[in-house]
Amino acid sequence: MYKILALYREYGQVTNPHARPRGRPRALDMTVLNYMSALLDANPTLYLDELQEKIFDVHDVDVHISTISRSLRRMALSHKGVAKAALERNEHLRATWQAVNGDIPKEYIVWLDEASVDDHTNQRDSGWAGMGRACVRRAAFIRGQRYSILPALTCDGIIALDIFEGSVNKEKFISFLQDLVR
Fold it and tell me: pTM here?
């Protein structure tokens, strides 16, 4: 306790700022860590060996995968499942619509939405994100053979439904409205 008080009186802090740092220096400096963080923000589904290659290509630093893993943990990034978000989503337009139409009673609304499933998806199902944050990768959802469903929903349930092979286009959507929703 006396040593800590003496350091605080002499330097204004509880450690000696002139003392040699303990341990060996980190293999990855802040520029490489910031680069890794930016890479994972742009593409959260990178594998550790892909990160290793990119770090070597850009910064000419050859580090082991375990060093990269420890650095990611120290940066409070964890490996988790990826949630998909539609690339076409526009949050500003969505908020504007909610502000304009938020007072319409729910009984007056019919929701129409296209959902689909593909034969094969080649997207990775795990990625890196900060602790307490979801790992989200924005991507187009079109892959392989597609089967689509067009439901019309109200508060009381489904009032119309159409399932078909392929994607929804303007003609299919308009014919769904005219033939089934009326």
Answer: 0.50
